[in-house]
């Protein structure tokens, strides 16, 4: 099981140094698998979207139904990563949604039209 995160956004600390905005992503997502960051924090779809999409394809080509994606990073790159993961996994993607201090797994099937449900079958 792997947890894919799109980007680790950076922020300036009190001393003017760049530090990860979300410091505990790995610890909080570890029960779902090993964390893998897909793209650098500076990846920008406005400057070179084609190479970023190619990089996402390369890194997600082995995505399976036991993997998850955390929706952190640039919204365009998040959309691309989810679309590519679904492409490699017959339209299905497991997402991790941040809520109330933890992650909630959400299953998304892009080939079926029905209510979006969490893994415990609760309508979201």
What does this structure look like?
By secondary structure, this protein is of the alpha/beta class. Helices cover 28% and strands 28% of the residues. It is built from 3 helices and 8 strands; from the N terminus they run βββαβαβαβββ. The strands form 2 sheets. It has a 6-stranded mixed beta sheet. A two-stranded antiparallel sheet has the order 2-3. A hairpin with a 7-residue loop joins β7 (102-109) and β8 (117-118). α2 (45-60) runs parallel beside α3. It is globular, with a radius of gyration of 15 Å. The mean pLDDT is 86.
Task: Set down the secondary structure blueprint.
Layout lengths: L1 E4 L4 E3 L5 E3 L4 H5 L4 E4 L7 H16 L7 E3 L4 H14 L3 E8 L2 E8 L7 E2 L6
Parallel strand pairs: 1-4, 1-5, 5-6
Antiparallel strand pairs: 2-3, 6-7, 7-8
Write a brief caption for the model:
The chain has one domain: 3-Layer(aba) Sandwich (Rossmann fold). It has three helices and eight strands; from the N terminus they run βββαβαβαβββ. It has helices at residues 25-29, 45-60, 75-88; strands at 2-5, 10-12, 18-20, 34-37, 68-70, 92-99, 102-109, 117-118.
The arrangement of helices and strands along the chain is EEEHEHEHEEE
Give the biggest beta sheet.
Answer: 6 strands, mixed
What would you call the structural class?
alpha/beta
Low-confidence stretches: none
Number of helices: 3
The strand count comes to 8
The level 1 CATH classification is: Alpha Beta
Tell me the CATH architecture. 3-Layer(aba) Sandwich
Principal-axis shape: globular
- Give the percentage of residues in beta strands: 25-35%
If you compute it from the alpha carbons, what radius of gyration comes out, rounded to the nearest whole angstrom? Answer: 15 Å
Helix content: 25-40%
**Total separate domains:** 1
**For the residues shown, what is the average pLDDT?**
86
**CATH topology value:** Rossmann fold
Straight-line distance between termini: 24 Å
In the sheet with the most strands, the strands line up as 4-1-5-6-7-8
């Amino acid at each position: 099981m792997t947890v894919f995160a799109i980007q680790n956004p950076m922020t300036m600390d009190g001393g003017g140094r760049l530090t990860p905005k979300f410091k505990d992503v790995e610890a909080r997502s570890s029960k779902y698998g090993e964390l893998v960051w897909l793209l650098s924090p500076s990846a920008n779809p406005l400057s070179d979207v084609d190479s970023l999409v190619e990089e996402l394809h390369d890194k997600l080509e082995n995505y399976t139904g036991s993997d998850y994606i955390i929706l952190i990073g640039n919204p365009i790159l998040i959309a691309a990563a989810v679309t590519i993961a679904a492409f490699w996994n017959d339209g299905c993607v497991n997402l991790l949604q941040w809520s109330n201090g933890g992650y909630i797994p959400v299953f998304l099937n892009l080939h079926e039209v029905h209510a979006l449900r969490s893994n415990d079958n609760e309508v979201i």
